[in-house]
Write a structure and sequence with these properties.
The protein has a five-stranded mixed sheet with strand order 3-1-2-4-5. It has three helices and five strands; from the N terminus they run E-H-E-H-E-H-E-E. A hairpin with a 5-residue loop joins strand 4 and strand 5. It is an alpha+beta fold. Bound molecules: nickel (II) ion. The site of nickel (II) ion has 4 residues, from strand 2.
Length: 135
């Protein structure tokens, strides 16, 4: 099995907030990410597809096509948006890197027709990221 990865970047605003929590709890749990009017991150997304290289092309999946797919299915919906308000797929979901990873998986998986979606990684900064491997 060979794993190939395509990386992309987007910028978005979010606010981590749970309506079931009191203001104090929200502040304690989410700290700076609870800022009432939101704040921004420069996100990196990495999508990994697993498979055997095609005998004719040598590709698991054409990474240019995977890039176009990420662009169409994800970036056009989230880049320069507010994740709490502007993205239908994230509605009612606390937009942590963890939850974003799960949602992006669902947005991408049906469109991967060469190889198999193996991993989606979302980083909010250089220091941390969340990964979903589909189970
Ligand atoms: Ni944040």
């Amino acid at each position: 099995m060979v794993y190939v990865t395509r990386k992309a970047h987007f910028s978005a605003a979010h606010r981590l907030f749970n309506p079931e929590f009191s203001d104090e709890e929200n502040e304690r749990v989410f700290d700076k990410c609870n800022n009432p009017r939101g704040h921004g991150h420069n996100y990196t997304i990495e999508v990994t597809v697993a498979g055997e290289p095609d005998r004719k092309t040598g590709y698991v999946i054409d990474l240019k096509k995977l890039g176009e797919l990420i662009d169409r299915e994800i970036l056009t919906k989230v880049d320069h948006k507010h994740l709490n308000f502007d993205v239908v797929e994230l509605r009612g979901i606390i937009p942590t890197a963890e939850n974003i990873t799960l949602v992006f998986w669902k947005m991408l998986a049906p469109h991967i027709t060469e190889g198999k979606l193996y991993k989606v990684r979302v980083a909010e900064s250089d220091n941390n990221y969340a990964e979903y491997l589909g189970t």
